[in-house]
Model the fold of this input.
Amino acid sequence: MTIDGGHMAATERISVVVTREEKARLAKRAKAANLTMGEFVRRAAEAYQPDVDEKALESLIQRVKKTADEAARAMEEGLAVVAESQKQIEKMESAHAARKVA
Done:
């Protein structure tokens, strides 16, 4: 076991098959982070937490559904108020028209 800068030196290899485009994107991102491609991929793999992402996404989906349901109910209530107002306006217009004729 060797130590390099306070970390164990990597001694095992993992082959990962990627497309030419994926490799180019990884190389660009690694260069931007001032890391070797191996170190960049190693850090990305260590940071990956699918359960956390999935839980956060599920929570977000539930909040969106709840908000959409609340918005739909509010719209239905608003439309009911508009319909009732329209009825009142029509009654008032009819009464006004009847007075003009009389």
About this structure: The longest strand covers residues 3-4. The mean pLDDT is 89. Strands lie at 3-4, 7-8.
